[in-house]
Specification:
The complex is a heterodimer of chains A (578) and B (77). By secondary structure, chain A is an alpha+beta fold. Helices cover 41% and strands 14% of the residues of chain A. The longest helix of chain A has 21 residues. Chain B is built from one helix and five strands; from the N terminus they run ββαβββ. The chains are: A alpha+beta (578), B mainly beta (77).
């Protein structure tokens, strides 16, 4: 029986609820956004007691669905002021699902300002003081908790950035090895967790069990279809396990869309040195691991472990976005320095995209020069120390840029644009501009047909066709995020119709009812509609669905491209929302 | 004879001994498909092609002096 635990941090009480019909067939982003939209005043301050943090495994999580271990965390975002769902791999979602937990909702705020930890197991949820954890980074926090509770537990935690309630703070989720390497990174949800006075959530799945589908045969047939499609597709079956997410660096650079030195150029001369191919070689030379799964049941295995020159573990990946943010965007071509910054981000609990983009803005402001890896590391160290400069870095690109009088700040709704320049990859530009989440590539990954030749082909340099592309991708993504599937299943889905058939059969098998592609896409439409309505009530208008001015005025080399999708067209992306 | 530079990526590098890039002499008018055939890179393993940072396909002919990027099906994010 699925349950929702409401943890009231104002009076330290816990309430157990049955999800009821309303939430019976939803999960992941669909559930977090529905609950935030229904229960959080849209105009509240994101760090106030009225905001809520909803932590939810996906619909298919815990069923044995391939790549179905995503964890969604939602709240009103302190970074963007919009509704936010940020999702992560790692073991957290699987552990919650094994306990039959549909969601944990953190409400209120401790009157005493103290810090607590939650212990979640088959007995329910217990609130305890977080003695000995306050002020620690994620690695030390998780190390202590695993030492106390054993290595079978999953931890969901914040580092110093979350405790300081910084707008770029992430929430860490432990991976298969119990390391805090997987993060709900975007949108500053670590600050919301910090505002609730929750340092860490320990989830012990011992005694829990796998969810049993109502129609096991249909479910199994669907799971097999998806798994076969994932193995057969060259992206998910070969490219991602071998080279990881950073295999993208060279192709996005070749397309002239690899944002370089704070979005000044579209190609970086140091790309080969920080590419996925080079990373692959370095990892294997040093005895690291490729084809690593970030959670049990992942069949793609795009994660990896990165060792230093002495063979000592440094971090996971690092992932494409992280390598770009701390690499090309800062003019840095040193993979070891980038890996060290990834480790620092994970430890302090920072969104790696926001952290790197903020350092890029700091470099533009002249705080340290572009290309200065040692200077970038020093800036990040300030976050751990909690200095005034560190707090600016941990507040994100928009705040730091304003503090230094910058006018080239690569954000939409206060959130940094990720690793595709919207002038050279215009479909993703439409997604950045219009997403309910602020600039977010995962919200509608138009890069696939724009550049990668996956899911058809739409010329990335022309404005035509990008709005429809982004709309369709945003709907499909909201469905995937609700199902609890890794977004990378989309590479197979876009090219192979049996993959989507498999997903629908798994959902139908789980519910014990027929489930069509239309039913599946209806989840995404309903989720986006709830998010748009929340944002409108929070004060957002079409004028906020725009890219920074420089994208429309500064030509990007090598294509001399500007972002020229008309505002009126951008306003049509959500024409399906009443 | 004019030359082109062919940059190969990810799984395609194994066909050129792990090299990242090779210079190839061509007769003007040769297509990308013909150049790849000569290098021993199977055309059916290629998915994304750029000539001087512009998307191209296997049938595009070359004059010399071009930079060609050839990728298999890849994705990430």
């Amino acid at each position: 029986m699925a349950v929702i635990y409401r943890v009231n941090m104002s009076d330290l009480s816990i309430r157990t609820e049955m999800p009821g019909v309303k939430y019976a067939q939803t999960g992941g982003r669909g559930l977090t956004s529905a609950m935030i939209a229904a229960e959080v005043p849209p105009t509240c301050h994101a760090l106030a007691a009225e905001n809520k943090l909803v932590i939810a495994p996906g619909i298919l999580t815990g069923t044995g669905a391939p790549c179905g271990g995503r964890l969604s965390i939602g709240a009103k975002s302190p970074l963007t002021g919009t509704i936010k769902e940020s999702n992560s791999g790692g073991q957290g979602a699987l552990a919650l699902a094994a306990l039959g937990i549909k969601a944990i909702v953190l409400e209120g705020r401790p009157a005493d300002g103290k810090c607590y930890r939650l212990i979640v197991n088959t007995d329910g949820v217990k609130i305890e003081p977080a003695d000995g954890l306050v002020g620690l980074g994620n690695y030390e926090t998780v190390g202590k908790l695993l030492g106390e509770f054993g290595d079978k537990v999953a931890c969901i935690s914040i580092g110093q950035a979350g405790e300081m309630k910084m707008a770029a703070a992430s929430i860490a989720v432990t991976d298969v090895e119990g390391r805090p390497t997987r993060h709900c990174g975007r949108g500053g949800l670590g600050a919301v967790m910090g505002s609730k006075g929750v340092k860490a959530i320990v989830v012990d799945p011992e005694g829990g069990q796998r969810l049993i589908p109502a129609d096991a045969d249909t479910f199994k047939a669907g799971a097999k279809k998806l798994n076969t499609a994932l193995k057969a597709h060259p992206v998910t079956g070969e490219g991602l396990p071998k080279f990881g997410t950073n295999v993208l660096a060279n192709v996005i650079n070749a397309a002239g869309g690899y944002p370089t030195r704070n979005f000044r150029e579209g190609q970086f001369e140091g790309t080969e040195a920080i590419s996925g191919e080079r990373q692959h070689d370095v990892i294997l030379e040093r005895g690291g691991q490729i084809a690593h799964a970030c959670h049990k049941g992942c069949t793609i295995k795009c994660s990896r472990t990165y060792l230093d020159k002495d063979g000592q573990y440094v971090t996971k990946g690092p992932e494409y976005e992280t390598v770009w943010a701390h690499g090309a965007d800062c003019g840095i071509d040193d993979l070891d320095a980038i890996a060290r910054m990834d480790r620092m981000d994970d430890d302090f609990g920072l969104d790696t995209i926001e952290a790197g983009a903020t350092i890029g803005v700091a470099m533009e402001a002249g705080i340290v020069p572009f290309g200065d890896a040692a200077g970038a590391i020093k800036l990040l160290e300030e976050v751990g120390k909690g200095t005034a400069l560190g707090r600016l870095v941990a507040s994100g690109a928009e705040v730091l840029g304003k503090a230094y009088g910058g006018s080239r700040i690569p954000t939409v709704k206060g959130q940094s644009m990720p690793a595709y320049d919207p002038r050279a990859v215009k479909g993703i530009g439409v997604t950045y501009a219009t997403s309910t989440m602020g600039a977010d590539h995962t919200a509608g990954y138009a890069v696939a047909p724009n550049v990668l030749g996956v899911g058809g082909s739409v010329d990335p340099l022309k404005p035509e066709g990008q709005v429809e592309l982004s709309r369709n991708m945003q709907i499909a993504t909201a469905s995937i995020d609700s199902a609890g599937l890794c977004l990378f299943v989309a590479f197979a889905v876009l090219d192979d119709s049996t993959a989507l058939d498999g997903i629908c059969e798994m959902l139908g098998g789980l519910f014990g009812t027929p489930f069509t592609v239309d039913d599946y896409l209806a989840i995404g439409r309903a989720t986006l509609a709830a998010e748009r309505k929340f944002n409108a009530a929070a004060g957002f208008s079409p004028a906020d669905d725009r890219l920074p001015d420089f994208c429309k005025t500064e030509k990007l080399a090598p294509h001399d491209a500007i972002f020229d999708v008309a505002d009126e067209e951008l306003d049509q992306v959500f024409d399906f929302v009443e | 004879m004019p030359q082109v530079r062919v940059n190969l990526y990810a799984m395609l590098r194994k066909y050129v001994g792990g090299a990242t890039s090779v210079e190839v002499e061509i007769e003007p008018g040769r297509t990308i498909q013909q150049v790849l055939d000569e290098l021993g890179v199977p055309a059916d393993q290629t998915r994304i092609i750029f000539v001087d940072s512009r998307a191209a396909d296997l049938s595009q002919s070359l004059e010399g002096g071009e930079q060609i990027g050839v990728f298999p099906a890849i994705g990430g994010g």
